[in-house]
Write a structure and sequence with these properties.
The chain is of the alpha+beta class and about 270 residues long. Helices cover about 25% and strands about 35% of the residues. Helix 1 runs antiparallel to helix 2.
Length: about 270
């Protein structure tokens, strides 16, 4: 019976983590470049139950041999193994703002490949992002909304000295008669990236290899790929599953209470 407690409780914890992930997705439905988290739920190892009994056939010494009769499998609960971002392309929204940049995916040689802007976080550490909602700081550098710098192909900061610059579809930024290539990085397996907050990722990335097609649109933003309606539906499903596990847990608690207070009572 105690195993039933753990099984129901593990189901409640798994649904709680799903609720948290879905709530975060909905909260970021309007965040440019945000990629929805998907919960990977797995079951604990299944146990095989056997009935211990004895054979009806007598052995030479007059004893009966022990035998096992399979009863069936017993699942020991579920857990959320990891949160996996969905890197599907979000819709492109025209803003007309020259500092807004959007990456449009092309053909990738790897099934889970993806492209990102090379940026730094507020602490100056190299990071990746799909959020092209950039701006110009007081020193004239192109920066992220969190105060990090947008990098060029060589890993240097990009100074525009204002908003009068042009970005071509191949990622070439032209300003004051000079041109620099935006730092666009390719990740062969986006499943290996780690979310580090503020719409930033860290992981292994490389310069765009041959055969990778990507388009940069100036004055546009990639919208979040969160489907708010589907997320709300999944939240309701997770809540109902949580409630069902809660009822099972209460039933086990009631049965345990009867076993302690009634079955074990000695009548005088």
């Amino acid at each position: 019976m105690l195993r039933g407690f753990y099984t129901a409780a593990s189901g409640m914890l798994a649904q709680q983590r799903r609720q948290e992930a879905l709530s975060n997705n909905i909260a970021n439905a309007n965040t440019p470049g945000y990629k929805a988290d998907q919960s990977a739920v797995r079951a604990f190892p299944e146990m095989l139950l056997n009935e211990m009994t004895t054979s009806k056939t007598l052995l030479e010494n007059g004893t009966k041999a022990p035998v096992q009769r399979p009863v069936g499998g017993l699942n020991t609960g579920v857990y959320v193994q990891e949160m996996v971002p969905d890197f599907a392309q979000g819709d492109i929204k025209q803003t007309g703002q020259p500092t807004d940049l959007a990456l449009v995916n092309g053909d990738f040689p790897d099934e889970n490949g993806g492209v990102f802007f090379a940026v730094t976080n507020a602490a100056g550490e190299n990071r990746l992002t799909r959020n092209g909602n950039f701006t110009i700081d007081a020193a004239g550098y192109l920066v992220t909304s969190e105060g990090g710098y947008v990098l060029d192909q060589a890993g240097n900061r990009i100074q525009t000295n204002g908003m009068d610059f042009r970005v071509d579809q191949d990622g070439t930024l032209s300003v004051d008669g000079r041109s620099v290539q935006l730092g666009i990085r390719y990740v062969a397996d986006t499943n290996q990236l780690e979310k580090v907050g503020n719409d930033l990722y860290q992981g292994q990335a490389e310069a765009l290899p041959a055969g990778v097609n990507v388009e940069v649109q100036q004055g546009a933003l990639e919208r979040s790929n969160v489907d708010a309606l589907q997320a709300m539906t999944e939240m309701m499903q997770a809540y109902r599953t949580f409630e069902m596990n809660q009822r099972v847990l209460k039933a086990y608690d009631d049965s345990m209470g009867k076993a302690v207070n009634e079955v074990g009572r000695i009548n005088g």
